[in-house]
Amino acid sequence: TDCCPATMAETFPVKPKLRPTSDGTGETAKPEAKYWRSFRKPKDVEAIASESFLYPISSVSFSPVVPHDFAAAHSATVTLFSGKTLEAKSKITDLSGSAASAAFRCDGKLLAVGDSTGAVHVFEAKSRSHLRRLRGHAAAARLVCYPRAADKLHLLSGGDDSVVKYWDVTTETCLFDLLGHKDYVRCGDSSPVSDEMFVSGSYDHRIKLWDVRVSSSGSVMELKHGLPVESVIYLPSGGLIASSGGNVVKIWDVIGGGKLLHTMESHNKTVTDLCMGKVGYGTSEDAEQCRILSVSLDGYMKVFDFSKFKITYSMRFPQPLLSVGFSPDCSTRVIGTSKGNLYIGRRKKKLETVDEGGYSEWGAPLADEHQRKVLRPTHFRYFTRGQSRRPAERDYLVKRPKKVKFAKHDKLFKKFRHKEAFVAALTSGDSGKVVAVMEELVARKKLLSCVSNLEGSELNLLVEFLQKNATRPIYAGLLMNLALKVIEFRVKDIRSDQQLREHLRNLKQAVEEETRIQQSLLEIQGIVSPILKIAAKRS
């Protein structure tokens, strides 16, 4: 019977799915790289609801108070996550449109959310009660920002209508319209040193600094970023700000009159968000080591040390990144993507040993009493405490001497096995070691006895070594005399071995060639010396 030929479907190689990777793989990790890599992913929180797969995470904001819950804005929902368990504990859906931005008040009790209709909503973070609705923007409210210090009554917002508004939250009234931008206002931040100072960034390529005490005169300073500004933040000192737009991050000196200090162009696509991070283990000294975290549509998170103006760490994610947040206690890092995923990393805290003076095993004072974790005898680390403690100025550091590794011939010398030591050196092939062993045997008056006792293969090694190195000026004095002694003592063995005669023939030719060279050099010296003497007299 006839059968139809089976058709073979075409096959194509499938690339494995990308996973977050860092640039420190395969190399000796630096301490800071180890720190950022310690933010392990306890879970990769996919879409928060079934429809969230299609909506990006537009904003991530951490509460400034313990346990540092965080809010993620996506679609028409703001989801609150527990700072302890990292699980979603509640959702806010009472919005007029899609959630564009979110920000906690300085005490963590209120959460402000801007939506796509231009309204700014104020909720109680714990009960999700809708307290205020601030209407005034004609387009989406992309910027929501509370003062950082003690002011709990006011709020700053900015929108796609190019207006920045300063609100009195209690009365739901706009106190000031801060005008000056000519395009969408997409980002901003409050000053860490003054509740009346704010900064905003716009798609008109400009960054404006505002002081609500002199709001009638417009912005107090204007900086030109050169590209649509996606994010702008104050640095901890309050005298510097960082802005991102395009694939560029810039550092500005506000106190110095808006001077541009540095430009970082390490991303390949638009830098979408910035936030401040800290490097340290909770001590007061380490906590001052602040870093700028930047995320981009190229899928990379970069860590920038603005005190040295260099990138200290980089990590790749499989999706374009839109938002980033870092908890104030340096324990959690959250990154939102354009496909509705949250990458949550939590650093595993180290258990610290506390001595009587209040110092941890790292040699650093612990700031807060509740942070101290005293090891008990029931824990195995109780018996190994102090082994990794860093020495302080008052300590005396005692180091163990490094163990010296002896070569094979050195070990044989210690056992007075001179012939075996000589053969071991010849076998190594290192001419310097061989000559050193010969000199030691001369000092011990054992060299000639070793030569007399060499067997056929061992004698072959010695003659071959003499052929290669006897004419070298640095060894010639010792090796030429030794070659004569070898011929004198082992003449019978040389006559009976074809290979030994071949080596000696080659040695003879090398000596004759070296003699001719030396003779030629002497003749040249005899010609040049009188000329140099005559030239010296004339000069």
UniProtKB/TrEMBL annotation:
Pfam families: UTP15_C, WD40. Residues 390-530 form the U3 small nucleolar RNA-associated protein 15 C-terminal domain. SMART domains: WD40. One of its GO terms (biological process) is positive regulation of transcription by RNA polymerase I. The keyword Nucleus applies. One of its GO terms (cellular component) is nucleolus. It is found in: Nucleus, Nucleolus. SUPFAM superfamilies: WD40 repeat-like. WD repeats lie at residues 134-177, 178-220. Keywords: Nucleus, Repeat, rRNA processing, WD repeat. This is U3 small nucleolar RNA-associated protein 15 C-terminal domain-containing protein. It comes from Genlisea aurea.
